[in-house]
Fold this protein.
Amino acid sequence: MDFGISGKVALCGGGSKGIGRAIAEELGREGCKVVVAARGQEAVDETVAAICAAGGEAVGAIADMTTKAGVEAAVGAARAAFGDPDIAIANVYGPTHGLWDETKDEDFLEAYQHIVMSEVYLCRAVVPAMKANGWGRIVTVNSICSKELHRGLPLMTANVTRVGTTALNKSLADELGQFGITINTLGTGSFATERYTSYMKRRAEDAGREYDDWAANRRADIPVGRLGYPEEMAAMAAFLCSTRASYVTGQLIVVDGGRVRTLV
């Protein structure tokens, strides 16, 4: 299937590890000119090398995508290498963990800065050129807690701020559709990434349980009976970035193996 995005410039935030890396590599295979933006030089270099080894084009941008300066630096790197981004993947680390009694006011402010304002900075940086070109794709890697709150996990600030980004995207979709720009949100479930595994191992240890038993219990709540693979999320992201998805915008698309039970 031709997604019609060969030659498009794709800026991939958090593109050096986990789901972000899988998306960067998938867009590279679709012929995009990929800018891998993340904080770690070694992981960025490895991802760029992997995309190029597979026959794609890619450069790295060492940037903290939760900050305005970092976003502007990454967009500047894209312009210098390939031109203005046609595609932007918003993907940043989640906020501080904690239950209500374990969090401070500052944790909520920081979470809002990282999750919501990072999206604001990215859209302000890439939307003007997308408008001028009459085409653009923005996809946010978010969480299922925008659809159904995390329960049993200390993710109070995530429950609050992830919804904020989803609402931002829904609002922006109303204004940007007339310019050929779509903006969608991915609700990620449990995926087999290094970050997820390390977090769940800490949770099992805190609960005084063996990780394998803990993990099996978590998987029992997923109808397909397993964790997701980053490549599965990358396939959905690539479709949303494609010309074939031009009538899909303002949506929260949950990719979670059937775990979320809510209907609306």
